[in-house]
């Protein structure tokens, strides 16, 4: 018998917060009704929009006036971020995972090649990436507390700090004390994808492992900020459940965290389901590119100051379009396998999913310039 995904495990830290209850209630109350074109245009005339306006921008009829919505989103992007497009790349250091999730290539029951990089291999990867000119790196692991302990990830961050000015982490949810350890070793930004805000679907697709515990995952951003992190990232895996409700919930979750922690830098990603090595038929279902752009624009209009990232899950053509309208951050030179950046590394692990945009850092850089935008590798320096 499977456990209730809403019940904490004994070892998991609990914090005093009512944000989860507020988001889940709002999601339950959201009926995904359609609205008139006049309602959408009235929303676009406002300086700041409400939760009801967010629902209006996510309705089906909004696709009819998507150009108008994109124009508003572009105005806000250029007003708040200028022509700057920030660059980063992910570095996967381990693909071991303790969880069974039906959509993920790293799931513990999948027959893939597992690799756990040691310090020497991690540093070789970091040096290879640094040669491309990048200054921001995102450390990733499969969600295994057994193989990728907090001290292992902290050591990787300490190594990364020798070469990169900005370090983020996209790893399993941790207690506050563990996030503090990562922060003390150089990590300033933590991203946790909630996958879906539907409790029913969350329970169905997360079969076993700590990831099955929804509230612990939901509160990750708060624990990271309580540990001293400068910024936190959010995202639902679009296509896993009703995309409108998940996009609405993601934006509300981020906005409530921003309201409670006004000093925090907020970022949002828009990952869609992608085929994996063990499931080539998996797809984002109803979330086609027009609907994905609609979501990105709605995020920008609802959260004009939030950073929006567009990853290599999407094609080069779509990413080029997204950064001209609403996204202000882009990954480049991406590999989602293990040990693949350094050519001398012969111990390479399987990839988490198929990417769509395999351009090198220079190719993305050149394309951004051609679009009249400014590639940025580093835009600030932390002072101790």
UniProtKB/TrEMBL annotation:
<dbReference type="InterPro" id="IPR012726">
    <property type="entry name" value="ThiH"/>
</dbReference>
<dbReference type="GO" id="GO:0036355">
    <property type="term" value="F:2-iminoacetate synthase activity"/>
</dbReference>
<keyword id="KW-0456">Lyase</keyword>
<dbReference type="InterPro" id="IPR034428">
    <property type="entry name" value="ThiH/NoCL/HydG-like"/>
</dbReference>
<keyword id="KW-0004">4Fe-4S</keyword>
<dbReference type="InterPro" id="IPR007197">
    <property type="entry name" value="rSAM"/>
</dbReference>
<protein>
    <submittedName>
        <fullName>2-iminoacetate synthase ThiH</fullName>
        <ecNumber>4.1.99.19</ecNumber>
    </submittedName>
</protein>
<feature type="domain" description="Biotin and thiamin synthesis-associated">
    <location>
        <begin position="269"/>
        <end position="375"/>
    </location>
</feature>
<dbReference type="Pfam" id="PF06968">
    <property type="entry name" value="BATS"/>
</dbReference>
<dbReference type="InterPro" id="IPR013785">
    <property type="entry name" value="Aldolase_TIM"/>
</dbReference>
<dbReference type="GO" id="GO:0051539">
    <property type="term" value="F:4 iron, 4 sulfur cluster binding"/>
</dbReference>
<dbReference type="GO" id="GO:0005506">
    <property type="term" value="F:iron ion binding"/>
</dbReference>
<dbReference type="Pfam" id="PF04055">
    <property type="entry name" value="Radical_SAM"/>
</dbReference>
<keyword id="KW-0408">Iron</keyword>
<keyword id="KW-0949">S-adenosyl-L-methionine</keyword>
<dbReference type="InterPro" id="IPR058240">
    <property type="entry name" value="rSAM_sf"/>
</dbReference>
<keyword id="KW-0479">Metal-binding</keyword>
<dbReference type="InterPro" id="IPR010722">
    <property type="entry name" value="BATS_dom"/>
</dbReference>
<keyword id="KW-0411">Iron-sulfur</keyword>
